[in-house]
Amino acid sequence: MKAYIAWILLTSLIGSSAFAQGLSGAVLPCKTNAVYLNSIGADIATAVVRTLVGTAIDTAVAYLDDPKVSKYEVVVPVDNADDLTGGTKCIFISSARITADGKIQGKSLYDSASLEGVDLFIKFQISKSSTASASGDHPLRAGILAWQYKHFLSDDCPFLRQCSKRDIVMKLGFMLPAASANNTTHTSEPFGFTIVNATANEVQNAVRLDDNAIATLPWTTSSELKGPINIRFELIETSQPNAFTKALAAAVKAQKGVIQDTVENKIKGLSDQVAAAAAQPRVTEAAKAFDNYKAAYDVALATRAAYELADANQRKVLAVQYEIQRRSAKLAETLGKAAFKLADLDWPDGGLGNLPAL
Fold this sequence. Notes:
By secondary structure, this protein is of the alpha+beta class. The chain has seven helices and 14 strands. It has helices at 2-14, 56-61, 82-85, 200-204, 243-254, 272-309, 312-342, and strands at 17-20, 23-29, 49-54, 69-78, 89-94, 103-104, 107-108, 120-128, 140-149, 165-175, 191-199, 215-220, 229-238, 259-261. The protein has a six-stranded antiparallel β-sheet with strand order 1-2-5-8-9-12. Strands 4-13-10-11-3-14 form a six-stranded antiparallel β-sheet. Strands 6-7 form a two-stranded antiparallel ribbon. It is elongated and about 95 Å long.
């Protein structure tokens, strides 16, 4: 309760900005002369980045081993949700305190010189689709207008652990004013992305921005944002590379019907390079499934050929074996078709042909 009261007092003192757990946040005018950093490309498109939506981040984070992760978050209260989608205001997140009058380290946050000593600085803009979804809601999209990630925020490195590479997990969501920090976000599919197994330099270069460009995150269907809301930004750094990938795999296995990954739906915004990397294992599995099907089919054919040459006593045994093998080949064909479908490949018409009954 004391911590909650202190948070209320702090946010009331600094107006539209908030500061907690090593991060600061504010909703302030975007300004046309915005700061653009890392002007070297377009979109969130390096091989180390995967873009996630839905409950994927929340569920996967729950599988992470707490001693190996450092968590940071900040909650920024907003009086009117329309400010976020009106095209004039942006969400600023920083590892240095942002004041309500738009200053950071005593200088204007719109001045690139003021960011020299800041480890983390992100500027988001939220846009709302003019076209409604099937549910009647208007999807939202977060765009990154400025990005700076000079150093890992946590220098914690457990004994005998190599910590030059880390997984970085981020999430931007919206909460109803009455919702607790542990409650579900106001959006049905929070924005989020993870930078897997990357050095500090790779993290810095993960988001690529051309001049006056925006690196876009996926569209997210949302209940309409109305009235006062709380913006919640979360950042997690692991001290062990690929920890989040393993956690995501465990989460997917446990909740296949809940997890949503934009690798499954390229329209939500995933680079061709990352999509191809994600699709490759499925193509490999499809090839393996077809090989298994062909092997089972060939075994059954060999048994059928042996049956034709066998005497009456041998045929009894071979007939049983053939029926088992024919059933096995049929099951292998079913598995092969499913693997091809997952890999977005066309199954050969008729497969390898029917294995007739004896």
